Amino acid sequence: MARKSYTEEDRARVRQALLDTGLEMAVRMGLGGLHLAELTRAVGISKPYFYTFFDSLEDFSLQLMEEQRYRLLRLLEQELARPEGTWEDHVEAFFWMVLRHRNHGILVMTQREEAELHSRLTPERFRDFRPGQRAFMLRLMALLEIREADCPPEVLANLVFSCLLIYNSAPESMPFLFPDYLDETAELHVRFLVKYLSQLHHQAKDR
């Protein structure tokens, strides 16, 4: 059988289909439930062809994280553009969308998934991934109209990610927490985050 010839447009569509399908699978089953055979079968390509786009399944997982960033920024833009509600209402709604990620097609890794993925990455590949994380937080802060001078993006990232990890990792990898009170804990986290971000937002507006 003759090998199918792909145009650049075909390749762009296949690559996006891999990301869309992979993200859908990972949201539904977790990053650990993402298997190459199922992914390529769902998209209708061979495993060798997959490797013309991505070096490995780990590299693909990082690309999913980058794809997720764009979707999160679009979600925040849409939420902030809603005419009803205050700025604080919109920010709180956005954080709850992320916390209840599966209902909104958002991929959030558990602590165990993060550790497993990190253990399979080379130090160089992880180092190359870092600038994208920082750039994402800066774009998020720009949408929120928060100045980098008032809050380093790394600090905001740690605040947000720690809230997500606690909410999504207990009791699987945080057995000493109280899982029956995660919603109440998340409410306090979100309330603190919104109040803190509101102070930064108004501080930037007053300058």
DSSP helix count? 9
Query: How far apart, in Å, are the first and last alpha carbons?
Result: 68 Å
Largest β sheet strand count, sense and barrel closure: none
SS strand fraction = under 5%
Low-confidence stretches: none
Computed CA radius of gyration, to the nearest angstrom: 19 Å
Mean pLDDT metric: 91
The percent range for helix content is 55-70%
Q: How would you sum up the global shape?
A: globular
Strand elements, count: 0
* Helix and strand element order: HHHHHHHHH
**Which structural class matches the secondary elements?**
mainly alpha
Task: Walk me through the structure.
- The chain is mainly alpha-helical and 207 residues long.
- It is 70% helix and 0% strand.
- The protein has 9 helices and no strands.
- Helix 1 (8-29) crosses helix 2, helix 4 packs antiparallel against helix 5 and helix 7 crosses helix 8 (153-169).
- The radius of gyration is 19 Å and the shape is globular.
- The chain starts with 7 loop residues before the first helix and ends with a helix.
Can you lay out the helices and strands and say which pair or pack?
Blueprint: H1 8-29, H2 36-43, H3 47-50, H4 57-81, H5 87-99, H6 111-120, H7 123-143, H8 153-169, H9 182-205
Features:
207 residues; mainly alpha; 0% strand
Summarize the structure.
The protein is mainly alpha-helical. 70% of the residues lie in helices and 0% in strands. It contains nine helices and no strands.
